[in-house]
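Work package 3, deliverable 3.1, input record:
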Amino acid sequence: MNDAAAPGVAGAPPLVPQCIEFRGGKAASALPILFFIAWAIFQSGVLGISDTAGLIVGMLVGLTLGMLLVRGSWTGYANAIFAGMAQRVAVTAIVAWLWAGMFAATLQVGGFVNGLGWLAEVSGMGPAVFPAVTFVLAALLATGIGTGYGTVIAFVALFFPAGVVLGADPLLMFGAILSGAVFGDNLAPVSDTTIVSAVTQDSDVGGVVASRFKYAIIAAVLAFIAYLVAGSLSTGAAIDADAAALFSAQSNPRGLLHLVPMGIVIFSAIRGRHIIEAISWGLIAAIIVNLVFGLAAGSDMLVFRVSADSWAGANFAHWPLVEAVPAAAAGVGGSLYAGAIGYAELVVLILLVLAGAHIMIRGGGFHALQEWLLTKVARSVRSAEMTMVIATAGINAAITINTAAQIAIAPYIATIGKRFNLNGYRRANILDANTSALGYIFPWAGGVLVGYTQMTRLAQTYDWFTPAMVVEPIKAWPWVFHGWLLVAVFMFSAWTGFGREYTTDRISKGGASL
Amino acid sequence: MSTGLFRNWRFRTDTPAFAPGEVLRAYLTGFDPASGEGTVRIGDTVLTVTGASAAQLDQLVDLRVESFDAQHAAGRAALQR
């Protein structure tokens, strides 16, 4: 151990020259980000509003307030906002999200979740094993479509009532669904967090997926066992035959055909194909599966809705992929549209968060915080990795959308990790696992809130569903076994060196150039 | 595929060792303007590097290990580029 030789050297020049002076010193450069964090806590934590667009306004106000503290001309500050938003990392992530969004939505309109429902039904499972199987199936869906939030919404809508109907514990069911979302967000090649973790740590998506498999699968096996044990210990509820029949009617084995496009994406990404290429092949396969097997019509994937009263309506309404609708409903739709546009708000938010982080860098606040961490906290590789684990987990307490949290903390993880020559894969894995996990554990986290929101709507769908069956967000956190176990696996790894890779062992693709 | 998924299921030491003559590519993790020497820290192993400059801090550099003391996890290396 060489604790005395802490990384970073006194007298060395700052990584980025301080270009913007603030009233209140370097710390004041953190105002836009801190204001955004406070806004996020108030909006999502206190008021319980899980609205990405609301966070955009928070970041905009923070950036505007920060400008008022600048000494001298505001031009440098304004230019720094542009420079922050124009970073290649943002563009790379945004482009991948757009493709991933189209793919995920196309699988969903093809009834992939209904296929999983059929699988659960034919296996004839009881309430004791239902939470464990729900975890596995949710993990499978989330790994395929890459969106934990989408998985939570789909599974709370279909699997949660099914489990309750069978007599499974609602707390365990919600925890199992959230756990599946954590697994997919962490491991899926098309997950936005996977993409962000790779590009911010100089790594390729296939490489990070392959290298993080070991952590994910260890935590998942332990979580599966934990759900089996907890399921067998929990007391059952009364079974409603009508509700069970409703669940059965929605199941469809043909939905499992989407395992093919999902496999194509995962296989291509792990084989090192560009993520755009990998998802494009999967998307083409998903469209073919939907059309050939009648899982979804062409207009479910892309539709031009023209006003029935217009010239276009009169002439094109009979064309494929064109529908005549009332003028107020005119527009473009379908899974390709909804999947890509579904990321629009997150795209804007990420650009603004990067601008706020860049202001902090140019104002010197980033450098000051980083040096404090490196000289006072992360003095050995163990403490450095433990700091990275705790920081990536803790950031979700403040920034409740896990992708945004990951982007905010990514530059710190890159710098701390590089100062100990941890390679890009190891850094990306620590970054993604813990932000993914806690993003579905904190009661005010976006992933928990979307599930809760969906659950409160179940009473309108099923007569038998009572308010007592709704799991309050504050009660769900102990039952997200995979999330907790993933954090535990990384703490164990940081302490013991399990899975650790140095740049001298292997340099990640994307980080190899001098 | 399986090779990738099951790669690196192992415990890696805090203090990796290197042999004299070994060529490495790693981040330059420190630079002391007073002595003109750089530092490459790999885990808790520290290599003192000659021939580096402040501009290379946090950049990947190629090194050749000149000497290494495994007991103290420390050594000297020369910058190659």
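Confidence is low (pLDDT under 50) at residues 1-17 of chain A.
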